């Protein structure tokens, strides 16, 4: 699907086609996640439970940063 990048005020935005918003089940004003993947980016609807889990993961990663760094070797 094709999307258009445009200037919106002092920001840059992406205009999603209606088919994409229907498939994502989002409407104007909804929050979506933009996630970088090895093959590009994915756009997913905002999920409060997922956001809560990600915040907990970030806190854990920050707290155990050195241990995780060592394990990654």
TrEMBL record:
GO MF terms, alphabetically ordered: DNA binding
UniProt signal peptide: none
SUPFAM superfamilies: AbrB/MazE/MraZ-like
SpoVT-AbrB domain sequence ranges: 6-51
NCBIfam families: doc_partner
Protein name: Transcriptional regulator/antitoxin, MazE
Taxonomic classification: Bacteria, Pseudomonadati, Chlorobiota, Chlorobiia, Chlorobiales
């Amino acid at each position: 699907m094709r999307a258009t990048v445009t200037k919106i005020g002092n920001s840059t935005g992406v205009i999603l086609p209606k088919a994409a918003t229907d498939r994502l089940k989002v409407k104007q004003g909804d929050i979506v996640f933009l996630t970088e993947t090895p093959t590009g980016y994915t756009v997913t609807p905002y999920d409060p439970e997922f956001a809560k889990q990600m915040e907990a993961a970030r806190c854990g990663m920050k707290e155990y940063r050195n241990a995780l760094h060592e394990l990654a070797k």
